[in-house]
DNA sequence: ATATTATATATCAAAATTGATATAATGTCA
DNA sequence: TGACATTATATCAATTTTGATATATAATAT
């Protein structure tokens, strides 16, 4: 991890992903589904900081796998405390609203 | 559960609770701590609908204990999926923002 | 085009949450 | 005020999440 790679930007990544019908199906739910919405926010924030999942995992004191799961649009099992840890490592604060 | 009792309103409840230094200590963190903020929002929403924890638990297909834990200002373990279930039972949508 | 690195996910053990039951302390009602 | 109901939480089993390891596929670097 001496060499810093340049990750694809969120926008490029999203554009690429939207070519996949499966991804499109999920992405359409972002407004209604806190998991999908959160996953996309996490991916955006991570790519913005140009961190790999492994690097973020290290900063958040969790595992690369946990990060991957949380970024997956169809994973719905993680805890709020893991989310808070990861968000913190991304320099973000978690704001939860019941609307 | 034939007879509907009248729960103390959130405002009254909060006023009463704020007399306790321990509660005050936690309540002060609501702006910085998603758990505290969420707990208070859950309590407010539940009392607004005049539901007991048991009634809400039933609607959310979870347990009274789970509700109590989530409403506790010092509990930090629950999953986002349980939160979503409970919010849904309260007629609320969970909105998560990383700010 | 090839070498290297990142990501998604399978397997499974370890850790944590959830639920059932019970109950003391607190709240509501008659 | 006493009877009844609600809430917070202890104990512990059942269930789920997290982490370690591994690896096929995809992305990035050269």
UniProtKB/TrEMBL annotation, chains A, B:
Pfam families named among the record's database cross-references: HTH_3
One Gene Ontology molecular-function label: DNA binding
UniProt superkingdom: Bacteria
Stretches assigned to the HTH cro/C1-type domain: 42-96
InterPro entries in the cross-refs: Cro/C1-type_HTH (IPR001387), Lambda_DNA-bd_dom_sf (IPR010982)
SUPFAM superfamilies in UniProt: lambda repressor-like DNA-binding domains
Protein name as catalogued: Transcriptional regulator
Taxonomic source organism: Candidatus Desantisbacteria bacterium CG_4_10_14_0_8_um_filter_48_22
């Amino acid at each position: 991890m001496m060499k810093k790679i340049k990750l694809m930007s969120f926008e490029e990544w999203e554009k690429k992903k939207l070519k996949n019908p499966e991804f499109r199906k999920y992405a359409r739910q972002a407004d209604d589904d806190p998991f999908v919405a959160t996953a996309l926010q996490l991916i955006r924030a991570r790519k913005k900081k140009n961190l790999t999942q492994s690097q973020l995992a290290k900063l958040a004191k969790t595992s690369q796998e946990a990060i991957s799961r949380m970024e997956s649009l169809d994973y719905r099992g993680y805890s709020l405390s893991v989310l808070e840890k990861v968000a913190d490592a991304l320099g973000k604060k978690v704001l939860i609203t019941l609307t």
